[in-house]
């Protein structure tokens, strides 16, 4: 009977799965030249760009702690989201009306792209316009306000992007159309879509649209009869960095880098550029690439107890055995003994000699008699069942990496500059708070080495290192990164498992850990802000308390110890965003952390345009104006993130990159996501362009320091 219960669940999943994926979604015309079908096997994990049925579906996903890789955005009036999910989860979503648009990345892509990279290396603002309720009547037209109208050209294609706000904020049916005219007289139009966040109307917008030439005029019209003024679209970002000097050295990245690789890169840079580099050991060692050792005692498909070690597997607990035995005599009590690395549970028997202990009794007995060595939990679904004679089974931490030291890890920062004494304005660049974002340490290390190598050959770089004190943390979360490279490539969080009870079941292994960029103290989950979770299995788990994790404490310690740091960049992937505070709001009324002053907002935006311009210099990648702005406006609310901490607590101008911009596919006329671990060529391109952005940030810091009144 128990067996049938399990089979029923498994079978229905499979049926649902194949039924959904073998037929086109309703309303999808079968293409003449069929694209490869979007299939993910039930147990595989992938990043999938999904068109959701409606806002309610998105809200449900967010409320249940879904692993959103990207900010949901609107296409054709529908919501697109990049989700990290299993085939089963995708099938469930599809059954509820969602449509898979693109497999951004499969689980196997990470290790393949890593291996290929190594092989190849060896061979060579929303303004909140609101109309009072009831103002709009059938005879009133609405008023349209163009908030943004920008154009740019990249790799020969010109794009136009616009945001328009209507005063009819409460009418979900208002349709807004943008009409454009180019310098050559070509005209065209495209629809905008309503964008709401946290239940509040923000504006109408569309993804960047291809246009045949430089647009010189734009007007918006609404289905209520509103017409905007004619606007001349502005060139974006309209900032050009200084030309790259002849002989400028770059391209120091030839493969993906694991934390072990990063350690040796740091060592090499310190040796090679002794006069310009300090290595700072950050004060809080991480847990290390370690986990407790666990096993199912019994069969989880029938009845089982999860036995977990208190200490880590590498601390003598891997290989410890656990078993239940039948004492073979009547009227015996339940006993627990531990000898020679074997935990033996002798089951209780009745007068007839039959074993009578339940799963709950066995778990309780282990916890009572061996609390210093073991933690036992009844497997989810096995409560109250007869405990079988089982084992011996071997406890194991399940970690696959063989070349990772299993000990607490010292996170390191590089400090670069001629004067590393606090007398110069400081810039902090830090990356890989999120383990799976493999391209991000490539960005910060390329940046560091560019500064060092060119300091000897390029007077302008030398001058920057005279004037600025640079701090770089290439990998904030090395334990999670080691896990991402060796065990589960979509790991986002660190390796500290705060789960208790059934959540410690080894089947949840890839969902444990704390989201470092939700573990800070400003605007945190613990303060009631949106975008983090108390569920230890959620991708956005905030931890047991603010700053519960060594990784987040390290970032803060470095910034606090060096009060000359005035600028910071938190490097993430992917999606192509450039953001700054506020990064969080409260759910009720969408009240954000305080907005920066007008002057500071101007500094944020003007600097961002300079940095976006520098990024574009490398291979023409233009970060969209709609994705440049405060985190809470352009991405999502991220309660307890580090940039907010640095800005509000320490007065640092703190930005975030999401490197890895969508690529325009002229064949399909669609923007396509690149994923966390793209083929190395793409990751390499990201490292080169965003390192250029960080160099421009150093110039921004230099210019800021020069402009400060003396004394
Ligand atoms: Zn991230």
Looking at CATH, the homologous superfamily of the largest domain is Zn peptidases
Q: Low-confidence stretches at least 5 residues in length (pLDDT < 50)?
A: 1-34, 125-139
User: What is the annotated CATH architecture of the largest domain?
Assistant: 3-Layer(aba) Sandwich
DSSP E strands, number: 31
Estimated share of beta-strand residues: 25-35%
Helix-strand makeup class: alpha+beta
Helical fraction equals: 25-40%
Output the CATH topology of the largest domain: Aminopeptidase
Separation of the first and last Cα atoms: 81 Å
How many domain regions?
A: 4
Distinct small molecules: zinc ion
Radius of gyration: 28 Å
Sheet with the most strands?
Answer: 8 strands, mixed
What does this structure look like?
Helices cover 27% and strands 26% of the residues. With 711 residues, the chain is α+β, with helices and mostly antiparallel strands. The chain has 4 domains: 45-107, no CATH class; 144-235, Immunoglobulin-like (Sandwich); 259-287 and 404-490 and 548-707, Aminopeptidase (3-Layer(aba) Sandwich); 292-395. The strands form 7 sheets. Strands 5, 6, 7, 8, 9, 10, 11 and 12 form an 8-stranded mixed beta sheet that branches. A hairpin with a 4-residue loop joins strand 7 (176-182) and strand 8 (187-197). Helix 8 (439-455) crosses helix 9 (459-467), helix 11 runs parallel beside helix 14 (642-650) and helix 12 (598-619) packs across helix 15. Zinc ion is lined by residues 434, 437, 572. Residues 1-29 form the signal peptide.
């Amino acid at each position: 009977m128990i067996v049938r219960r399990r089979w029923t669940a498994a079978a229905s999943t499979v049926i649902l799965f194949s039924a959904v994926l073998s037929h086109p979604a309703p309303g999808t015309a079968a293409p003449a030249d069929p694209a490869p079908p979007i299939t993910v096997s039930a147990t595989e994990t992938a990043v999938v760009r999904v068109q959701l049925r409606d806002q309610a579906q998105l809200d449900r996903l967010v409320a249940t702690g879904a692993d959103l890789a990207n900010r949901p955005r609107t296409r054709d009036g529908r919501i697109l989201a990049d989700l990290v999910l299993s085939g089963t989860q995708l099938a469930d979503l599809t059954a509820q009306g969602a449509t898979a648009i693109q497999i951004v990345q499969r689980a196997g892509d990470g290790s393949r792209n890593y291996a290929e990279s190594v092989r190849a290396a060896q061979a060579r603002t929303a303004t909140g316009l609101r109309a009072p309720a009831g103002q709009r009547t059938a005879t009133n037209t609405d008023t349209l306000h163009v908030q943004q109208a920008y154009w740019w050209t990249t790799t020969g294609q010109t794009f136009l992007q616009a945001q328009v706000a209507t005063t009819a904020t409460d009418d979900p049916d208002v349709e807004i159309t943008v009409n454009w005219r180019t310098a050559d007289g070509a005209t065209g139009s495209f629809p905008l879509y309503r964008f709401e966040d946290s239940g509040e109307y923000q504006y109408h917008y569309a993804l960047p649209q291809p246009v045949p030439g430089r647009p010189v005029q734009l007007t918006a019209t609404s289905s209520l009869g509103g017409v905007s003024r004619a606007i001349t679209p502005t060139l974006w970002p309209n900032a050009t960095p200084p030309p790259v000097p002849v002989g400028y050295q770059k391209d120091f990245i030839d493969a993906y880098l694991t934390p072990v690789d990063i350690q040796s890169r740091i060592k090499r840079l310190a040796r090679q550029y002794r006069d310009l580099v300090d290595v700072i050991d950050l004060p809080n060692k991480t847990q290390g690439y370690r986990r407790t050792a666990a096993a199912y005692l019994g069969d989880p498909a029938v009845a089982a107890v999860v036995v977990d070690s208190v200490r880590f597997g590498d601390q003598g607990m891997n290989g410890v055995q656990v078993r239940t035995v039948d004492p073979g005599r009547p009227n015996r009590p339940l006993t627990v003994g531990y000898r020679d690395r074997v935990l033996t549970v002798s089951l209780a028997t009745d007068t007839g000699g039959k074993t009578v202990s339940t799963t709950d009794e066995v778990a309780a007995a282990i916890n009572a008699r061996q609390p210093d060595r073991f933690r036992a939990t009844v497997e989810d679904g096995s409560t109250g069942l007869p405990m079988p004679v089982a084992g011996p089974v071997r406890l194991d931490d399940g970690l696959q990496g063989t070349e990772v030291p299993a000990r607490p890890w010292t996170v390191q920062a590089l400090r670069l500059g001629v004067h590393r004494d606090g007398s110069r304005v400081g810039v902090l660049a830090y990356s890989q708070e999120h383990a799976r974002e493999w391209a991000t340490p490539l960005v910060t290390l390329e940046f560091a080495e560019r500064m060092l190598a060119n300091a000897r050959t390029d007077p302008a770089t030398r001058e920057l290192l005279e004037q600025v004190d640079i701090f770089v943390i290439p990998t904030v979360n090395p334990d999670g990164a080691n896990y991402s490279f060796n065990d589960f490539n979509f790991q986002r969080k660190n390796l500290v498992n705060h789960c208790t009870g059934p959540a410690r079941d080894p089947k949840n292994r890839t969902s444990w850990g704390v989201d470092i960029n939700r573990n800070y103290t400003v605007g945190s989950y613990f303060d009631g802000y949106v975008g983090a979770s108390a569920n230890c299995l959620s991708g956005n788990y905030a931890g047991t308390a603010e700053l519960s994790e060594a990784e987040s404490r390290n970032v803060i310690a470095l910034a606090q110890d060096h009060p000359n740091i005035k600028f910071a960049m938190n490097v993430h992937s992917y999606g192509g965003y450039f953001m700054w505070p506020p990064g969080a709001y409260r759910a009720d009324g969408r009240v954000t952390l305080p907005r920066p002053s007008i002057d500071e907002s101007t500094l944020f935006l003007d600097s961002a345009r300079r940095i976006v311009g520098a990024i574009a210099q490398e291979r023409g990648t233009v970060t969209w104006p709609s994705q440049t702005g405060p985190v809470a406006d352009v991405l999502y609310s991220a309660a307890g993130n580090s940039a907010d901490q640095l800005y509000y607590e320490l007065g640092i101008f703190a930005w975030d990159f999401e490197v890895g911009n969508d690529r325009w596919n002229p064949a399909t006329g669609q923007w396509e996501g690149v994923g966390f671990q793209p083929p190395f060529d793409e990751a390499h391109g990201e490292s080169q362009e965003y390192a250029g952005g960080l160099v421009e940030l150093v110039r921004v810091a230099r210019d800021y320091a020069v402009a400060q009144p003396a004394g």
